[in-house]
Amino acid sequence: MNKMTDIDTKALLADVTEFLWHEADLLDAREYQAWLALWDPEGLYIMPIGGGDDYANQLNLCHDNDKMRRMRVDRFERGFSISSAPPAVTVRTISRIVIDSTKGDEIKVRAAEHLVEDKFGRQRIWAGNAFYTLIKTKDGFKLHQKVVRLLNSDGALNSFSYLF
For 93-131, what is each residue's pLDDT tens digit? Predict the structure, then answer.
């Protein structure tokens, strides 16, 4: 991390936390267009299966650029995805937010995510580690990369009718 004062670090952590909680709130509310607006057009949304960091050359649940994010959201909003009819209700918690590094306008952050899904009268719980690369812009933060590693990503998974 570059040299920052404790006050700068606390203020940045507070701003980052507010941004991540806002993103989580948008996803729980299924406000997908507002969620898409949080992204840098060059950003990637990735959910890898198993370990590894070479996301372009490994199996992923999703590896979405801007076009693929928009197509995924379109399927959710139109109900064209069998997994999204009816859509699940979710409540997620983002916690243990840690700023790993800052370099210029780029901030690398990691956090824990717990997501509870309610659908068809049953609840499922998902847990994972989320890794964010945020870009500081004049309009606030933008997501440049979001990697969600589900704890059981290499085990049996069901279809998802929501984003993590």
Answer: 999 999 999 999 999 999 999 999 998 889 999 999 999
Q: How far is the C-alpha of 35 from the C-alpha of 20, rounded, in Å? A: 11
pTM of the complete model: 0.91
Beta-carbon-side half-sphere exposure of residue 157 (alpha carbons within 13 Å) = 19
Residue 81's CB is within 10 A of a number of other CB atoms, namely 16
Contact 112, 126 (CB under 8 A): no
Q: Which two tokens stand for residue 117?
A: 């899904």
Report which of 90, 77, 86 is spatially closest to residue 126, judged by C-alpha positions: 90
CATH number at residue 108: 3.10.450.50
Q: Note whether residue 88 is domain-resident.
A: yes
* In-domain check, residue 109: yes
Structure tokens at 29: 């509310």
Answer whether residue 144 is part of any domain.
yes
**Total residue length of the chain:** 164
Residue 142 located in a structural domain? yes
Say how many domains are in the chain: 1
Q: In which domain, by residue range, is 128 found?
A: 6-150
